[in-house]
Amino acid sequence: MNKRLILSKIFFLLIISVFSQESFWVEISGTPNLFPAIIQPVDGNSDIFVAQGNLQASLGDILFLSVSEGGMVQESYFIDVSIDSLEDCSSFFINYKKSGSKNLFTTMYPSYLPLGCSFTGVFIVDLLGNEMWGKKLSRSLSSISFLASFASDTSIIVNHFWDDELPLDQMLMDSMGLVMFNVSGEEVWNYFYKSNAFNEGLYYITTPTSSVFPDGSISILGAVEDSPNTFLDNFFILKLDASGNVILSRKVVNNSAWHPLEHFIDHEGNVYVVGKIYDDINGQYNGFLLKLNSEYEVLWSKMFYADHYNCLDIQFALGNDNTLFFAYVSEGYFPVIFGKMSLNGELFDPHGFSAYSPRVGVNANGSFYFSSSKKYLPDGSSLWGLTLAKSDSLGLIESCPEVLACLELVDINPPLFEDIEWTRSVGTKLPDLPLSIAPANIASSPYCGSPTPPHPYFYLPDTICAGDCLTPDSTYNRLAHQVEWYITGPGGLDTTIIDTTFTWCFDEPGHYQVEQGIWLLGCSDYYLRDVEVLPDDLAPALGEDRVLCQQPPYSLSANAPRPLTSYLWSDSSTAAELEVTNSGTYWLDASDGYCMLRDTVQLTFLDDLLDQGPALSLPADTSVCEQHLPYELLPQSPYTEDFSVPVISNSSASSFELWQAGSYEVQAEVFGCPIKDIFALEVNDCRSRIYFPTAFSPNGDGLNDLFLPQGKDYEGIELQVYDRWGGLLFSSQSP
Fold first, then answer.
1. What is the pTM of this model?
2. 499 with 482: CB under 8 angstroms?
3. What is the pLDDT of residue 106?
4. Looking at residue 464, what is its pLDDT?
């Protein structure tokens, strides 16, 4: 159970009164515990900033400061508010208005705080008149927005949810309380308003605002939510006379997309309604501006649109020259677009600035304000620290860069309105909120907090190897509102990645394109790189395991489809070739600059395998007699039985017949190696010599009686004798 106690809520008030056109951007110091803070400039022509944060764990604070030209602080104040609260109700939001010397505040708790946080109130501080007063608006409606604005220079209109009749846990009202005070805090009138046009049951008013017609009647803009969980707005607008009587009221029919934020009235009585509308196609909120006549009839309807720029808030001021000045606010590091437009909806000169979660304001002279609870460093990083900025009437801040913005203003179909009726009853008197004020010691110093805008450039190598996985390098896109990557490549690859970075594995060889698109303040920029992915086909580069037929050394080199640029061999050498002198296993790590290879090969010198004798043996060179041909050649090898003699035949055999003299090359294959040797055969004419007698005497004396050949190792076959004229004289055959 929460313990209730009395806390002294301390608020800092920092009054800024700059009455020249000089621009500034300053950092606020002297509030070391004021983090995080929200700094909110006011509307109208005043130059006031209000800052809110946490001084202690259970204390809230507002800063209210006055600065001279150049943003130097002149005055700063504390406000002390004594309230009945809870220990965990220290966080709250502030709205602020100003008229003359009167400074009007409304405060409320956000919806994430527990039921029962009771510091929801309105108070006025008049620094010149030393006058202040405050009223409590609700006991527990922590997520409700509260209207408090000047209905005239002498009156203030406030909406509230204070009802003493309801218990604390039933404070979601089915009616809207409106009360008018004079500037001294006295009630002029106080009513509850209820309309049957909305769904039955409990509902509550969100984003209420008021404005005043030239005739003094009051316009109230708001939305009714059916429940705190559905957030289906019923957008309405209500006209009251100075006494709180309903003159006219209309609501949007079947509204679920239009979220009103603010409205204001020009000197002709035309009403401008500002808000957000959800864009289903692009998945973001866009700003809208409706121009209505004094009868709340639509004259035109415009929508603001910037790519990938989600509208969170939009502020307008009616310029002295009938120009509309606006601030269009999103999120991120560059969240603010300032510009101007005509009363007919023509857009001029949008440009942007950087600020963390800024509060913005626009003045009728064309200058704008923004403020932040962080300060940026040049590299885009940030530190907690209050900063305030004011532009000149052209929307520029001296010595601080502006950023191009791409904002469109397009016609859209307006919402349909229907007339509705309200009933009213007397409201509940609001209890007082005690206040006190004291000076503070706050200072400022020059500052320009614009980091370098993001750009789409990135680095990827232009050639890589299939299978490589890459992440873009040298990116500077963190500050962009949207980052998209587009990858196209072989096989119809076409993909989009929505993130500040990615890792992609390029598995297929071929040509790829990688493009980055970034969006900042609605403007897009692109950068494209081509990437060639080479096939990972460098290995095998050393070939198959093999027997080296030559004698050592052997020069081992890589045979790759592309030139190699680096080598690392198994012996740590880095030359293109390795000298191999011994049988063994060798490996190579190499690269062509893109792909890597590692290949291993087993090399064996042939001599290391010849453990059973020579690879090829031939008989010694031989000489034979011609009549002894053919000579049978018998090669020998313990490793093969297949030999060939190409001059005889290409067929393999184990023996060969040699019919003539010559040198014969004998070939064989041993362990895959071609082996050859030469055999020389000499053939001789080995026939014996035969002798015939030159004369014989066939007289029977036993001497030279016979005519016959004589010699060794011959065999006679036939003998014929002819006379000198060729006549056959004798013929005889060997028996």
1. 0.74
2. no
3. 65
4. 96
The Cα 507–Cα 505 span in angstroms is 6
Residue 673, pLDDT > 70, answer: yes
Half-sphere exposure of residue 616: CA atoms within 13 angstroms, side-chain side: 22
Rounded-to-integer distance, Cα 296 and Cα 205, Å: 20
Q: Is there a contact between 457 and 495 (Cβ–Cβ < 8 Å)?
A: no
Residue 222: CB atoms within 10 Å = 23
The pair of structure tokens assigned to 659 is 């019919």
Per-position b or e across 192-208, b if 16+ CB within 10 A of its CB? bbbbebbeeeebbbbbb
Q: How far is CA 415 from the centre of its chain?
A: 37
Q: Quick check: 182 and 188 in contact, CB under 8 A?
A: yes
| HSE of 160, CA atoms in CB hemisphere, 13 A | 32
Mean pLDDT over residues 667-685, rounded?
94
Say if CB 199 and CB 226 are below 8 A apart.
yes
The answer for residues whose C-beta is within 8 angstroms of residue 655's C-beta and 6 or more apart is 632, 633, 634, 635
What is the number of alpha carbons within 13 Å of residue 3 lying toward its C-beta?
A: 5
CA distance 374 to 35: 9
- Show the tokens assigned to 312: 């969170």
What the block records as the tokens of 105 is 């505040």
Enter the DSSP assignment of 143: T
pLDDT at 713: 65
pLDDT digits (tens, 9 = 90+) for 74-87: 667 666 665 544 34
Give the separation between CA 57 and CA 380, rounded to whole angstroms: 30
